[in-house]
TrEMBL record:
This is DsrE family protein. It comes from the Bacteria. It comes from Candidatus Magasanikbacteria bacterium GW2011_GWE2_42_7. InterPro entries: DsrEFH-like, Sulphur_relay_DsrE/F-like. SUPFAM superfamilies: DsrEFH-like. Pfam families: DsrE (PF02635).
Length: 107
């Protein structure tokens, strides 16, 4: 199954749970694409905490061939064009994810 996820939050717990679900899906042999938009495009600035090891989850997601995109407009609004967390994308890319996914979730 192809799973598309739109992550619009920079809340450490919500981001952590999003990646936990994505990892569970990848380990169950599903393909997963995550599109970061709004506050979600601030992923690179979210610090790990005692309870939420976000950087580890993101690394594992990439290692398991999860695909990560970021809204170019959201990145530019935040002055993070050089962050390099993932490819800068467009609404057309998000539309493709939605069209090609069997399920789409928004966190």
């Amino acid at each position: 199954m192809k799973i598309g996820i739109v992550l619009q939050s920079n809340s450490p717990e919500r981001v952590w749970n999003t990646f936990r679900f994505a990892l569970t899906s990848l380990k169950a042999s599903h393909s997963v694409s995550i599109f970061l938009m709004s506050e979600g495009s601030e992923l690179d600035g979210i610090q790990d905490t005692e309870h939420f090891d976000i950087s580890k989850k993101v690394s594992e997601f990439k290692e398991l061939s999860g695909v990560l995109y970021a809204c170019g407009t959201c990145i530019k609004l935040r002055g993070k064009e050089d962050a390099g967390v993932c490819p800068i994308s467009t609404m057309s890319d998000l539309l493709t994810i939605v069209e090609e996914s069997d399920k789409v979730l928004v966190f």
